[in-house]
Amino acid sequence: MGGVGGDWARYWRAGRRPLEAMHAHFERHVYHRHSHDTYSFGVTETGAQAFTCRGAAHTSAAGMVMAFNPDDPHDGHAADALGFTYRIVHIGPELVTEALADATGSRSPLPLFAAPLVADAAAAGALRAFHRALLDPAATALRRDELLAGTVAHLVRAAATQAPPDPPMARGTSAATAARARRFLEDHLLDDPTAEELARATGGSRFAVYRAFVARYGLPPSDYQRLLRLRRARTLIADGVPIGEAAAATGFADQSHLTRWFVRCFGLTPGAYREAACS
Questions:
Q1: What are the structural domains, with CATH classification, of the chain?
Q2: In which region does residue 5 sit, left (phi positive, over 0), alpha (psi from -120 to 50) or beta (all else)?
Q3: What integer pLDDT is reported at residue 173 of this predicted model?
């Protein structure tokens, strides 16, 4: 638990499984536009959180569920001076697949949540119960797995489709070009490529690559490169690598540079993440 002013956050992570949870209250904190490589499901408890996602502005009031697909870029801040309190879980796609199989008895395609806001009391209740169990040291692993399956099933029934449509692409852009650019950034995590080098690697003009990338991933390549570095740094920190070493290993100038962006995108410091309850 920690924070500045009226802000506080409590974090939990599940060791080697792609499952994390945060309970937080924010009045001053402003999330920089970012995305996760997981599904992220949040439920607002008090107040209201304003955010932009998929080109539109939204407000999550008490009792509403936020549903973000992997790589869904979004930001967020308090809608008024009173702030907001919310619970959020980050669930890896492989765990969503397992949970759906547990709930339905068969393998299903990964769901797509077409809208980032879900008004469904049953889904919100299931998410709250699951979140509380994750942060409860007395909860058993079996109970948590049961609630995971139930929560995913509730959310899918309430708001998901089974076949993700092709992402909207501006005229003259290409999903393949965007995917090649992403692979290049992943393969050259510590490099500092120019726009021209990225264009050569993907076979398009600088403008075409930029437009295709933003249309597909919702962020410019430079922002996505920093996000990839943050995700890698988070993994290293969870594995016990000292924060300064993690910063150096992922292309940040120093520990303070990593810390600033970690807070802006994830809502807590690398140190708080490292010390998060883990089971």
A1: 8-161 (2.60.120.280), 175-278 (1.10.10.60)
A2: left
A3: 53
